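Annotated sample (chain length 112).
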Amino acid sequence: MGRSSGARLATWYASRHRVAGVICIAYPFRNPTLGPEPDRYLHLADLNVPTLICQGIQDDYGGSNIFGDYALSSSIRVHLLRTDHNFNISPIAWDTLARIMLEFCQETLRRD
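Output written by the structure step:
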């Protein structure tokens, strides 16, 4: 599990090592002040590990446009929230997100 750069590192690691699954919060598909950096996202097209990406639709590092801009493997599930990269969401939204993450973990562990 990782947030922002930690999510990027977690998916990179999972693309090279055996892990049960990955949860990403606020994945940094791009740096808004730099040009394209393919090493941030190219590995996501071939990732064969169950992955949950929780992403804000107003995230400057990749919002609701990620589906058209980046190739994501079929092992990746994306959950969009009404937030930005800082993930300032209500306690109720955090509770909902925690439930989604728990369900993802339970489903992933049942596969192994």
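Annotation: The mean pLDDT is 96.
Annotation: Residues 30 and 50 are 22 Å apart (CA to CA).
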